[in-house]
Amino acid sequence: MATENAGTVGVQTPAQSGVQNGVQSVSNQGNGRTVGVQTFTDGNFETSVLKSDTPVLVDFWAEWCGPCKRLGPTVEALAAEYTGKVTVGKLNVDDNPTVSFKYQVKGIPTLLLFKGGEVVESIVGLAPKEDLKKVLDKHVA
Amino acid sequence: MADLQNVIIIGSGPAGLTAALYSARANLRPLLIEGLEAGGQLMLTTMVENWPGYRDGIMGPDLMAEMRAQAERFGAQMIHGNVAKVDVCSTPFLVETTDAHYRTKAVIIATGASAKLLGLPAERQLMGHGVSTCATCDGYFFRGHDIAVVGGGDSAMEEALFLTKFASKVTLVHRRDTLRASKIMQEKARANPKIVWMLDSQVTEIRDSGKGEVRSMLVRHNKTGALTEVAVSGVFVAIGHTPNTSLFRGQLELDANGYVVTHDGTTTSVPGVFAGGDVQDHVYRQAVTAAGSGCMAALDAEHYLEHIPEHLQAV
What we know:
The complex is a heterodimer.
Chain A: E1 26-28, E2 34-36, E3 38-40, H1 45-50, E4 56-61, H2 66-81, E5 87-92, H3 97-102, E6 110-115, E7 118-124, H4 129-137
Parallel strand pairs in A: 3-5, 4-5
Antiparallel strand pairs in A: 1-2, 4-6, 6-7
Chain B: E1 4-10, H1 14-25, E2 31-33, E3 47-48, E4 58-59, H2 60-73, E5 77-79, E6 83-87, E7 93-97, E8 101-109, E9 113-115, H3 121-125, E10 131-132, H4 135-138, E11 146-150, H5 154-163, E12 169-173, H6 183-190, E13 195-198, E14 201-208, E15 214-221, E16 227-231, E17 234-237, E18 241-243, E19 273-275, H7 287-306, H8 310-313
Parallel strand pairs in B: 1-2, 1-8, 2-5, 8-19, 10-17, 11-12, 11-17, 12-13
Antiparallel strand pairs in B: 3-4, 6-7, 7-8, 9-18, 14-15, 15-16
């Protein structure tokens, strides 16, 4: 769903404006810390999300979902701003039905925040970056 | 950021992007703030068959990408972001996003309209867990399920038809015994064997399984008052739209339903503020009429800027 009408706030910073929607930008900075938006799958979900030491924000999306593409730059911006504090990644619901089914995702975009292997926050539909930051800030020290 | 803009366009559907195209071509160097639902309602549709010039139709998101690129080609500046505050009570007008403040001589409002909900208690809770306002986003999750579409307009018909690709059965619930949808859409929907009809009926309750997932809906027949529980795992709400005008309440004349009131083309109650598209039109609400009024707003703004009263020009 995509019509949650927030009506206020939420802006991508100029730094993100060059980032293409849907592009997976993952790089390793040599210190063992992965930055950027990761790709989660049915295969790596257990290790990358459920067993992660840091909170993990998972963006459930699909190629055919217009609103998901709109949310893309916001998710990328969050990944950059919360480097080291929150791991951010995308999970394609088409390719990874097991995880999507397990967490009863029936509308996208959906963002789930995992902490210690449990879902602690669930945001369905489009949301401004500022609102998402408030949600994340509750769970980072 | 302190630069005084000629015109700021708020919204990036057909009205906003057409206004951007025209004002860019008039060398006004427009700034367009896209908004949270960038691209507008067409981003949620599939094939658009009534956009003139595309005889075989064009996908809604593709059409919007084309419009955006066309406006950018002539120098329209696009801002990712959402307007948090507008002040049109004094000039130059003020438009604020969370990241920036802008001063502008003219504003074009093209904020469109967003889907209405039924107003049932469980509806928001179950959003994303069976309740949806976007068939193209969420239909995929209901493969082989029985679902419902609520509404009687073209959008409801389109959603129902789209959803038959996934669902085993689509129950269409509409509160009147006649549909408001265009004849061609009604005929398409009526010809589809997967769509069953519950007309003259209203959804009074959406029930969940106790696990936060839609399990059924309670439908009341308006004449008989009879209540029927229909097992569905999804309810798609397509009962119309409400204009996105909360930013302007108290500053511009709005009608009883919240639409911006325009006169003499696209002029609002404040000189220098113009409105185009669904935010000021609850009658036609077509992509092509939105684009048309976006064009009008750009021309009206251009004319205004050429004849702007001297006392309003000072910064």
